[in-house]
Amino acid sequence: MALAREMLEKLVDRRVLAALEVCVRCGICTESCHYYRSNPKIEHTPYYRAEQVRRVCRQFLDPIGRAFPGWFGAKTTADEALSKLAETAFAGCTLCHRCTFECPFGVETAEIMRVMRSVATATGYGPEMLIEIAGAAIAKEENADLFRDIFLDQVKELEKEVQELLGSSKAKIPVDRKGARFLYVPLAGAHTIIPQAIIFNMAQESWTLSMFDSANYAVFLGDISKAKRIAQRIITEAETLKVQEMIVTECGHGYTAMRWEVPKWFGRPLPFGIRNIIEVLDEYMRDGALHVNPSRNGRPVTYHDSCNLGRKGGLLEEPRRVIRATVGDFREMTPNRLHSFCCGAGSGLVAVPEWTDIRLQAGKLKADQIRQTGAKVVVTSCDNCRHQIGELSEHYGLNIEVTSISELAVKALA
Amino acid sequence: MSTFEIVAAVMVLVGAAIFAAGVVAILVAAQRRPYNAELAPIKGSPANGVLWAFTRGLAPWAKESARIHWIAYIRGVIFHLGIFVGVVYMIATPWLAQMPEPLRLSLVALFGVGALLGLAGFGIRITDSTMRLLSTPDDYFALALTSLFLATAAISAYAVDYLPAFWAISGITMAYAPFGKLRHFIYFFYVRVFLGLIFGRRSVLE
Q1: A/B interface, count of CB pairs below 8 Å
Q2: Which residues does A265 contact at the CB level (< 8 Å), separation at least 6?
Q3: Do B136 and A72 touch (CB under 8 A)?
Q4: To probe the interface with A, which of B143, B204, B205 has the most A CB atoms within 10 Å?
């Protein structure tokens, strides 16, 4: 308990303090949460969730709350309660920030939950699966030489595929190219390498492929020291290769962490630019570096805004411009952009098998939204969203194809 | 001046002093907390973000939640508007006699409606099972106190003889404000500024 108190004391910064103090528990945020909309229970309301943490903070951080706990609702936390709070923070909130923009005050419940995740992880209540995945990323960095040969072999195979697809032996997937304009950071899986390699080759880009992937599961744990280590691998790679920009693949948390959070963790801006592959695609299409034919994507298409990329990352119009240029029939979900609903699997839920039922239920609203558009293809710019929407399709019988913006663009290449 | 008038005047002055000291203490404590400034290269405009946070971002038509809970939203807006005007009115009460009649009657209406809406909020908090579960004694007391503040403001604006009662309640309200839920009015500005700065910088709010 002392550690929990110490962590709260350390992590409650001015922004979180304001979020803790400003809520008047009016309940207006209730329906803003996809958990509540899919399963209306009091535990699924943002203000209920945040209030559980708030009561602990009143005890630990507020001398007045501590002096009059009954009056102000301060609560000392026992181990059992801490475990429950951890579950709420990890499985009961996807940190999507939607409720913030629906709250009359703008309470950042997601920030409160993020702090609670940090406390839970530090006190041993972090989900094992997320800890393992974050640990594996660190192990890869520690044993980089071991992975390098395997990685290079795999890249050679992928390069052959790209050459076949483009019908050109000149097509390359460069690795360790010093002075390249872009360091492209993919995810594990060919689907985040082959389409982008085709795009870069078609645009005759100066680029190099990162050995690491953009996923940073320590972000979900709220474990900043581990998150820094995971990010550091790619930063070092970019600095060593002296690239101008790091281009992050279609990975919601990976992009937003690298673009917006990493400089805060390290206390300095990074010496190179950071963009998402969608921004590059948007640039290519605007500049005429890529020519697309929208009739090649003839089926009705809708776009799911990843919360990380859109509401938290500021990429709201770029994906739409690319999609509009590459498809014949684009249909918006309602609501969208700032008010878009989370797919239900954000912030690590997708990786924990025990939470499958929770996320499939929380994703019901998204499934309904997709169905209402009548679209046959759902495009999303985050791999976790993609996985979740694929499962939602099976679970709710949507019968849709789920794809990324890069893959959609490649299909439309003239 | 009657004894009650003197006591009421002292109460309002002491209340104001406690309020001022409390607000300063809250601000100092808040400023002592670390501020993790955004260091990433800017994409949008933090200034436009802050402007958005205090204008369009507060507009009820911009919020699905306000459309769903429009009665509660309007209730909250009028209630808070009444309190804000009530505070200005409190400062102006030494000149109440010079106040034009139509203005006084308008204030009576605003404060009266505000008080009724405050009481309605109290009733909702008691009857709604979710809100009841999450409410603390501080929630009820703060709501009752501000409703009483508005009620006495309305009465005093109508009949000047009741001004000391308004002063007394104002003194208690101000003295209590820094300690409980009522202090949310300070953090409101923090939250909106942070929202505007952070999400404006990321070009989310354009």
Answers
A1: 154
A2: A224, A227, A228, A231
A3: yes
A4: B204
What does the DSSP 8-state code read for residue A207?
E
Token pair belonging to A205:
């880009």
Question: For residues A281-311, b (16+ Cβ closer than 10 Å) or e, as one string?
Answer: bbebbeeeebebebeebeebbbbbbbbbbbb
Question: Using CA atoms, how far apart are residues B132 and B134, in angstroms rounded to an integer?
Answer: 5
Q: How far apart are CA A300 and CA A374, in angstroms?
A: 7
Q: CA Rg, chain B, in Å?
A: 20
Query: Would you mind telling me the total number of residues written for chain A in this entry?
Result: 414
- Are A66 and A72 contacting, i.e. CB atoms less than 8 angstroms apart? no
Pairwise CA distance, residues B11 & B5, whole Å: 10
User: Are B126 and B144 contacting, i.e. CB atoms less than 8 angstroms apart?
Assistant: no
Q: What is the pLDDT of residues A231-246, one digit of tens each?
A: 999 999 999 999 999 9
- In chain A, residues with a C-beta closer than 8 Å to the C-beta of B199 are 314
Distance between start and end Cα atoms, chain A: 61
The ipTM is 0.95
CB atoms within 10 A of CB A236: 12
Instruction: Give DSSP secondary structure letters for B104-165.
Output: HHHHHHHHHHHHHHHHHHHHHHHH-HHHHHH--HHHHHHHHHHHHHHHHHHHHHH-GGGHHH
Burial A17-35 (b: 16+ CB within 10 A, else e): bbbbbbbbbbbbbbbbbbb
Omega of the bond prior to A269 within 30 degrees of 0, cis? no
pLDDT digits (tens, 9 = 90+) for B109-144: 999 999 999 999 999 999 999 899 999 999 999 999
- Determine whether the interchain pair A45/B192 forms a contact, defined as Cβ–Cβ distance below 8 Å: no
**CA distances, A345 to each of A91, A114, A341, A388 (Å):** 9, 16, 11, 6
**Side-by-side strand order, sheet with A207-209:** A207-209, A182-185, A245-248, A273-276
pTM here is 0.96
Give chain B positions within 8 Å (CB) of A335. Answer: 64
Residues of B in contact with A316 (CB under 8 A): 204
Indicate the DSSP class of residue A184.
E
Model confidence pLDDT, tens digit, residues A40-91: 999 999 999 999 999 999 999 999 999 999 999 998 777 788 899 999 999 9
| Interface membership of B97 toward A (CB under 8 Å) | no
